[in-house]
Amino acid sequence: MATAYVLINCELGSEEAIITQLKGLEGVKEVHGTFGAYDILAKIESDTVEKLRETITWKIRKIEKIRSTLTLMGIEGQT
């Protein structure tokens, strides 16, 4: 399972609408509004890194009023 966390900056006042759209996307497991440098945090999971990339590039980044994103890819920890 591939996991990514996407930090999102959006236009002022558009947070709720964007959160609603994100929750409707396949692979989006969690969405939270945040305070600080970013407006929204989304957790995305998929079977492959390629599917994650497609979701971020062609679905999330295309949502109107999103200004920028920063993606953090999760890695498997050692046990």
TrEMBL record:
Gene3D superfamilies associated with the record: 3.30.70.920
Domain Transcription regulator AsnC/Lrp ligand binding: 6-73
Pfam family, one: AsnC_trans_reg
Coiled coil region boundaries: none
InterPro entries membership: Dimeric_a/b-barrel (IPR011008), HTH-Siroheme_Decarb (IPR050684), Tscrpt_reg_AsnC/Lrp_C (IPR019887)
GO biological process terms, semicolon-separated: regulation of DNA-templated transcription
Entry-linked SUPFAM superfamilies: Dimeric alpha+beta barrel
GO molecular function, one term: DNA-binding transcription factor activity
Protein name per Swiss-Prot or TrEMBL: Transcriptional regulator, AsnC family
Species per Swiss-Prot/TrEMBL record: Nitrosopumilus maritimus (strain SCM1)
